[in-house]
Write a structure and sequence with these properties.
- The complex is a heterodimer of chains A (303) and B (446).
- Chain A has 303 residues and is mostly helical.
- Helices cover 69% and strands 7% of the residues of chain A.
- Chain A folds into two domains: 63 residues; 209 residues, f41 fragment of flagellin, N-terminal domain (Up-down Bundle), CATH 1.20.1330.10.
- Chain A has a two-stranded antiparallel ribbon.
- By secondary structure, chain B is of the alpha+beta class.
- Chain B has three domains: 102 residues, no CATH class; 140 residues, no CATH class; 136 residues.
- Helices cover 62% and strands 13% of the residues of chain B.
- Classes of the chains: A mainly alpha (303), B alpha+beta (446).
């Protein structure tokens, strides 16, 4: 005969009800937090994946910030280049005007003064600052890009711009250096815009036939300079496009990552709810039947 | 005539009373820990007639022959073995879980990722003072998180050792108690209720001892037990009325070793084995955390030495200390970060050395290493969870089968109560009959 011990009955009952309660509570917690994993050991592989996802997300926020920085610097460079181009076009107009033989020396000298002041403006543009307050066209230097060396404008920056990482191992050079904009080659050899403008101003102010000739002769150099500036603008535009492209990729990636995060670590509410309902039904049934069975004692029959 | 109706009836009533007492005792102890259901063996008392009186009726009633203790020693052995395994798994699991919490909740992984992020942010503008300050602050957080994790591990180890030491002294108390029970068992009468109670006590003590360490038991015919502790080889712990002393010792790396009377012993199963396993795992995890901390500090410091600070001087170490517990930040000012390569001018925006630093960090990848460590610990916890729940099922089914076999069934006791009450009443009726017969005899010749 199997002896149905009272102690064993109660022990089994408490164990079953206890484990059902624990199950229900864990399901409830999953619904409450929306997370399937409470701690890494609930699913070590998924937890490791989630850690790497959150790491990538964190790095991506810095990538976003860095690419915004690069975009701002490149936009500033672009605006500076537009101003330079406008300035060169204006100088070219003045040069054409000055080459007109009907102009008097005084009129030419006045044009020379304007060219000289435009040259000053050009130096200011060349020394403009980026949004962090560093020299925009000076490469990696801490100081200014151009210095006035006794009337000669000299490049004192470095010829390299530090590339900036913008995610997925890609980087972008967030700017241009002075020589890439102002230095160009013509039939007359390597020149820079400052010298061209300086020489033109000096010749116009000097007056005479030399002034009129200088006006005509400088047109070649000015055209070459303008071309260099517009080429630089194209380069900047291409870089801005590249940043846009990478930003789009990053956004798409962020969506994919968020999707993966919910796939790996999120609790499916519908499934979890119905499982909780199932567990609760079983729990209630177990409790009810336990109470009934516990009341079945021969002692209650004894009078 | 060799029979006496009155005394036969009286012996029957006595036996029924004894049976009722035992039933009441069973009911009273229905939920007592370690109580094994008693049952009564009642036997007939009779004598054969003497020479020449073979035909005589010679009956003397009934007597209580034995109070039987319904314990199955195989099931008891199973309960001891399985509960020892469960205790080992429980203790190891608790230790591992605490290690997982110390590693996960200190947020050291997040701090490493954050440190990587601020370094990358610094690349956006290497001479920006606020970005430099952010790197130093984040390095400080990182060092703190490593320290918190290390001290978390320290307290996990201290907790495990404290519990193990308490269990060692408990095991010694249980051993001494077993020796005393052994002595009393040699004096208790066979089949007595005293002996049954002592055997209950003995089995309960053995079960407690099995919760600490694996035990080997040898039972003598008088119920005394000889106990050996551990395995490879087992050391004699209780022999007759004498008990040995279990002791524990802590090694430099925090792991525990045990000895019985100075001779080394391996607990095999039970809570002590669990603590020992958890402490060994803790020592290895700690070692790996120290390696990660030292690797990270070395990579950063070496890169620092290769470059120049903002003022153009050679870079000084960012971190000091070479273990997770001692790691700290030696630099106070962000200007000391060597972002520019050697030979660069003061204030240079060249970030070649910062790139080199980030490359060498990416080479050892401390975040990945720490994630790996966390993965190893958590997958061990997950694995042990499965083992533990399997062992729990095994142990509880062993316990339930023992309870079913040796526990009190109140329904059966209620039936016994009625049965023995009726037996008592019947014996009383027999006495009444004897009295009536006697009266009849007295009434003759009146």
């Amino acid at each position: 005969m199997i002896n149905l011990s009272t102690g064993a009955f109660y022990e089994r009952g408490t164990r079953q009800i206890g484990s059902l309660r624990a199950q229900a509570e864990s399901l409830q917690q999953q619904i409450g937090t929306g997370e399937r994993l409470e701690r890494s050991s609930d699913d070590p592989v998924a937890a490791a994946r989630l850690r790497m996802i959150s790491r990538n997300e964190r790095i991506a926020t810095v990538d976003t910030r860095n690419s915004q920085l690069a975009e701002a610097d490149l936009s500033l460079t672009d605006r500076t280049l537009s101003s330079v181009a406008d300035l060169v076009v204006r100088v070219r107009e003045l040069a054409v005007q000055a080459s007109n033989a009907t102009l008097s020396d005084d009129q030419r000298a006045a044009i020379g003064v304007e060219v000289a002041s435009l040259r000053e403006n050009l130096v200011l543009l060349a020394n403009s600052r980026n949004i962090a307050g560093h020299s925009l066209l000076g490469g990696q230097t801490a100081g200014a890009a151009y210095a006035d060396n006794g009337g000669v404008i000299q490049f004192v920056g470095t010829t390299e711009v530090t590339p900036l990482e913008i995610g997925e191992g890609q980087s972008v050079v967030p700017g241009l250096t002075g020589p890439e904009i102002f230095q160009f080659d013509t039939a007359n050899g390597s020149k820079d815009l400052f010298t061209v403008l300086g020489d033109l101003a000096t010749a116009l102010k000097a007056g005479g036939q030399g002034g009129a000739d200088a006006g005509a002769a400088s047109l070649v150099d000015l055209d070459a300079g303008l071309e260099k500036v517009t080429t630089a603008q194209t380069v900047v535009g291409a870089r801005l496009n590249w940043i846009d492209l990478m930003s789009e990729r990053r956004e798409a990636n962020a969506e994919r990552v968020a999707d993966e995060r919910s796939n790996v670590g999120g609790a499916d509410i519908a499934v979890t709810m119905s499982r909780l309902q199932e567990t609760l039904t079983v729990l209630e049934a177990t409790q009810a039947s336990f109470v009934r069975l516990a009341n079945l004692s021969l002692f209650s029959m004894l009078r | 005539m060799a029979s006496d109706l009155l005394s036969i009836a009286a012996s029957g009533a006595r036996a029924a009373r004894g049976a009722l007492d035992v039933t009441a005792q069973n009911i009273a102890n229905a939920s007592s820990d370690g109580y094994v259901r008693r049952s009564l063996r009642i036997e007939e008392v009779s004598a054969s007639g003497g020479a020449g009186r073979i035909g005589d009726i010679s009956l003397s009633g009934a007597r209580i022959a034995e109070i039987r203790r319904n314990a199955d020693s195989f099931l008891q052995g199973e309960v001891r073995r399985t509960s020892g395994d469960l205790q080992r798994a429980n203790t190891e699991l608790v230790g591992l879980r605490n290690m997982e919490s110390a590693l996960e909740q200190s947020g050291v992984f997040t701090a490493i990722v954050e440190f990587e992020a601020v370094l990358q942010q610094l690349a956006g503008d290497p001479i920006d003072p606020s970005r430099r300050a952010a790197v130093v602050a984040e390095a400080d957080t990182l060092a703190n998180k490593f320290n918190i994790t290390a001290s978390g591990f320290d307290s996990v180890g201290a907790g495990l050792r404290f519990e193990a030491e308490a269990q060692v002294s408990n095991a010694n108390i249980v051993g001494a108690e077993l020796a005393r029970v052994n002595l009393r068992l040699t004096r208790a009468g066979v089949g007595s209720s005293d002996r049954a109670a002592l055997l209950d006590q003995r089995d309960q003590l053995l079960e407690r001892l099995a919760g600490f360490s694996s035990i080997t038991t040898t039972f003598a015919s008088d119920g005394t037990v000889a106990v050996s502790l551990g395995s490879n080889p087992a050391r004699s712990f209780v022999q007759g009325g004498a008990a040995s002393t279990l002791s524990s010792a802590t090694a430099a790396d925090g792991t525990l070793s045990f000895a019985v009377d100075g001779q080394a012993v391996t607990p095999g199963s039970g809570a002590l084995a669990g603590a020992s396993l958890a402490l060994t795992e803790l020592a290895s995890v700690r070692g790996r955390l120290d390696t990660i901390a030292a690797g990270l500090a070395d990579a950063v410091n070496n890169a620092q030495a290769a470059g120049v600070a903002l003022d153009g001087s050679q870079g000084q170490p960012l971190f000091a200390g070479s273990t997770a517990g001692t790691l700290r930040v030696a630099m106070t000012d962000g200007r000391g970060l060597a972002t520019a390569p050697a030979g660069a001018a003061a204030g240079s925006r060249d970030d070649a050395n910062l790139n080199a630093l980030r490359k060498s960090l990416a080479g050892i990848d401390p975040a990945q290493q720490l994630s790996g460590l966390l993965f190893d610990v958590s997958s061990k916890v997950a694995g042990r969870n499965v083992t533990q729940s399997a062992l729990e099922t095994i142990a509880s089914s062993a316990r339930v089968s023992l309870e079913q076999q040796s526990g009190v069934d109140l329904d059966a006791e209620a039936a016994n109560l009625i049965r023995f009450q009726q037996a008592f009443q019947a014996s009383g009726r027999a006495m009444q009959t004897a009295s009536d017969i006697f009266d009849t005899l007295l009434g003759i010749g009146r």
